[in-house]
Amino acid sequence: MSEVLLNHINRYVELDEGIAQEIAAFFSTLKLQKRQVILEEGSVCNQLFFVSKGCLRLYYLDDKGVEQTIQFALETWWMTDIDAFNKKGKSSYSIQALENSEVVAISKDDWTLLLEKFPELEKYFRQIYERAYAASLFRIKLFRLSKEEFYHLFRDSYPGFIQRIPQKILASFLGFTPEYLSELRKKNESK
Amino acid sequence: MSEVLLNHINRYVELDEGIAQEIAAFFSTLKLQKRQVILEEGSVCNQLFFVSKGCLRLYYLDDKGVEQTIQFALETWWMTDIDAFNKKGKSSYSIQALENSEVVAISKDDWTLLLEKFPELEKYFRQIYERAYAASLFRIKLFRLSKEEFYHLFRDSYPGFIQRIPQKILASFLGFTPEYLSELRKKNESK
């Protein structure tokens, strides 16, 4: 299992070496190819993923069959369809690697066991969900901005990130057409 | 302190009677008048609120001085500016009671102490934030719907709630003008 995850947990909760190894045994590491899908919309969602390297996206197909990206996960972010994972239900989203990536995965049953055996991890996951909740609240606020303001704020908040994502997917996340995003970029480059 | 909170905690974590009373001592109960503001945008956010009766809303003033409502909290929901609360920073939002309400409040320092003293509550708050995160993710997905679809889905998901909120505030939450909401309602009543 990735050292990245153990280091990340240690930032929130102090683990001694023995416990760290026991915790590590609950997880498996997956190496993903760029564009590989690790959760398919409509299939049972039974895994929680932690990105140790690379980038994932969460998306769904709308009524018109167009992919709508609603979230990204970079290094040290967790990702799943949280609602489906909790209920072991069918996922409303797909998850795909946007780059060659490495993720650490745990099944719902193992996650439940892990938290029972190491309740000190509740503090870690409480803070993870707190952060995820705060980020999505901020995202909701951003929807009230004009499209151009939203683009600038997103670009300034995650400057390196915009270069890493295919333009079509970035446009979908921002709620733009690819043509509109391309116009915005040209306009800003020429400034 | 409100029995509603203790009952709610007990749904997630089993507390024995002695502990329940010690936990209760960390909270204070506030009775709020309709329209009373308990957190002002720009002031330091030092409290986390649990609604035991009534309804709160979270909102901010946009560039044009218009109030934008981005979240509601009904009975058994928690509310604060989570980011500002964690940093003890200035709030980006105001919180107001929409009805005569009763809330249970805890300061940031007391909350930190509470979790240190009763780490079993980490599991409770982990699930609270998990739920809040799942709800805001669903909210983000709803933004992709047409305005009319969004209204119907919201109305069908929270049938009693729509009657409780002033129309102007509901319109702001849905991202509509009050005139558009009024038209939609008339159109649906006449069906």
Automatic annotation (TrEMBL), chains A, B:
Gene3D superfamilies in UniProt: Jelly Rolls
Pfam family, one: cNMP_binding
Domain of life of the organism encoding this protein: Bacteria
Domain Cyclic nucleotide-binding span(s) in chain numbering: 11-132
CDD domains tied to this protein: CAP_ED
Protein name stated in the entry: Crp/Fnr family transcriptional regulator
Organism (species): Flavobacterium azooxidireducens
